[in-house]
Amino acid sequence: MTDPRDAVRIPLVGRVLEANDTIAAVVRDELQARGIFAVDLIGAPGSGKTALLEATLRTLAGRRRPAVLVGDLTTRRDGDRLARWCDRVVQISTGEGCHLEAGQVRDALSGLDLDGVDLLFIENVGNLICPVGFDLGQNVKVGLFSLTEGDDKAAKHPYLVTAADLILLNKIDLAPYLTFDRAGFEADVRLLNPTVPILGVSSTTGEGLDGWLDWLDAPKV
Ligand SMILES: Nc1nc2c(ncn2[C@@H]2O[C@H](COP(=O)(O)OP(=O)(O)OP(=O)(O)O)[C@@H](O)[C@H]2O)c(=O)[nH]1
Ligand SMILES: [Mg+2]
Ligand SMILES: [Zn+2]
Questions:
Q1: Most buried pick, 7, 47, 80, 211, via CB within 10 A?
Q2: Atom in ligand 1 nearest the alpha carbon of residue 170
Q3: Does ligand 1 lie within 6 Å of residue 127's CB atom?
């Protein structure tokens, strides 16, 4: 499988990505040493990243010890939503930055008490493009699409689909009201990434969340 970052490896961008990768490797080593499994959640603005994490944290309470980093250009709104369900949340303000970088993750982690934490969710900035190219030291990337974005988004955002370890399709509760061609969406995903699991979920009704939680619990190679 080609590295999606190759497409943007012009010289200056290449150096930025190399510097990022060096920090990401340090973050990855630290997380691994602590036994923390890290998920980089990538999806469009409004696809339901925070809603999914709210539902996930609510369900995981008492079962796992999660921490959350959440990136946004401005406002603490997502961090405040997530802090209702988890006592280890850091909001990262990216300013004009349209993605998270490994240095921001390293700095945010240094301000968190990671004792006992076994799971780290990183809600990336709402953007289907450049977050894919920046390694954050995560174990897995989860690509979150939703029915309201339209069924063509996997085909139009191949880098995320190619790089994803799991594709979540959120807002399935809205299917009766929308003309979303789910079979077509899944066929587009399959062309780009033949083996990636695709799970339909509703962060609002909870439908399908068991499959997502089982996937989180399952050992990854
Ligand atoms: N019906 C329905 N609405 C949902 C679902 N998930 C999220 N929403 C709604 O979609 C809107 C956006 O959800 P957020 O969780 O804020 O989306 P996000 O991806 O975190 O957005 P950004 O952080 O701004 O990129 C909110 O109004 C949610 O209530 C779902 O499964 N079903
Ligand atoms: Mg959000
Ligand atoms: Zn960006």
A1: 47
A2: 31
A3: no
What value does the mean pLDDT take over residues 201-218? 97
The answer, yes or no, to whether residue 77 has pLDDT greater than 60, is yes
Give the domain CATH number at 158: 3.40.50.300
pLDDT, tens digit, 9 for 90 and up, residues 176-198: 999 999 999 999 999 999 999 99
Domain count, the chain: 1
Instruction: Note down the domain range covering 46.
Output: 4-217
Q: How far is the centre of ligand 3, averaged over its atoms, from the C-alpha of 78 (Å)?
A: 19
Q: Mind giving me the DSSP string for the chain?
A: ---GGGGG--HHHHHHHHHHHHHHHHHHHHHHHHT-EEEEEEE-TTSSHHHHHHHHHHHHBTTB-EEEEEEESS-SHHHHHHHTT-S-EEEEE-TT-SS--HHHHHHHHHTS--TT--EEEEE--S-SSGGGGS--S-SEEEEEEEGGG-TTHHHH-HHHHHH-SEEEEE-GGGGGGS---HHHHHHHHHHH-TT--EEE--TTT-TTHHHHHHHHHS---
Average pLDDT on 148-165 reads: 98
Pocket of ligand 1 contains residue 171 by CB under 6 Å: yes
Q: What is the pTM of this model?
A: 0.94
